[in-house]
Amino acid sequence: MRTTLSWLIAAALLFSAPSAFAQTDPESGSSSSSWGGSTPDDPEAGSQTSSGNPFVEPSAPEEPEAPPGQRPAAAPEAAPAAAPAAPAEHDHLFAVGKIGLTFFGVDSVRLTPNAPLAPGAPSGTLTDVSDPATVSTPVVGVRYWFSESLGIDLGLGFGFFTREDVNNLLPGGGAQYDGLDGVFALRFQAGLPISLKTYQHFNFLLIPELGFSYGQGTAFSAMSADQDVDFQNIGFDFNARVGGEIQFGFWGLPNLALQATVGLGFQYRQTTAADSRDPGDPFAVDLETTEVSLQTTANDIFNGTIRVLYYF
């Protein structure tokens, strides 16, 4: 009897031992065994058991994954650095590759030689140079810039006129007619503008120039056709100008420019005058004069010292 009771008590203690050693977590309500076992609810304990070392530091927690259908938030990008300010373009760039219209000035072509045409000719008549025949040739043209530093100027001008003089005070009531007929002149001019220094609205220039002029005409006589005098003038000149061109970009008009220059140059002129009378005639006309001069252009406003240009 006593032996049977002892076996029952031992069996009861054996079955109640595991539950007696289990502990309950007061915060989570889960229980764990003091024998080192882990429950499925404790992942950290399971990792410690699988590694075999309870003192290994746990791994860093992983970032939470975005909910399905939603892209994870991107990290904010750094603001790009501000680009350096572009340098202001000067007005001269507007003229490069464009054509500029301009007025080169007025050239005067003298047809009569710088000498009396006939010895003892009456003053004020066509056979005396005190009343020289000149032709004005206004020259217009263009300027074209190949690059910022080099351009070209081209100009052309024409002039012509006819004049008739009538003397109604001849003895006996007659009239005498003379004058100039077929007077014509042209002027061609070319230049090579070189930009030495450019600012935002100003361009410092050096301009070598070459010019050619030609003129002809006839002074007809009231006496006879063989006394008609034919004139001819041929001229060359070379100038070098220095100055500046200002463009009105500060007024919103970079295509409008004003140029002012001074210069120095050589001028060559050859003038001839001849009629059809016999060379042995004491009153025959056969003259030729040649002039070479050094001239300035600082005070000659109408010969290109000041020019207006319009680029388009």
Question: What can you see in these coordinates?
Answer:
The protein has 312 residues and is mainly beta. The protein folds into 2 domains: 23-52, no CATH class; 92-311, Porin (Beta Barrel), CATH 2.40.160. It is built from 3 helices and 12 strands, in the order αββααββββββββββ. Strands 3-4-5-6-8-9-10-12 form an 8-stranded antiparallel β-barrel. Strands 1-2 form a two-stranded antiparallel sheet. The radius of gyration is 54 Å and the shape is rod-shaped. Mean pLDDT is 74; it is low at 19-52 and 122-130.
Explain the layout of strands and helices.
Elements lengths: L1 H20 E3 L6 E3 L9 H9 L40 H4 L3 E12 L23 E12 L5 E17 L8 E16 L2 E5 L3 E19 L8 E20 L4 E22 L11 E11 L9 E6 L1
Antiparallel strand pairs: 1-2, 3-4, 3-12, 4-5, 5-6, 6-8, 7-8, 8-9, 9-10, 10-11, 10-12
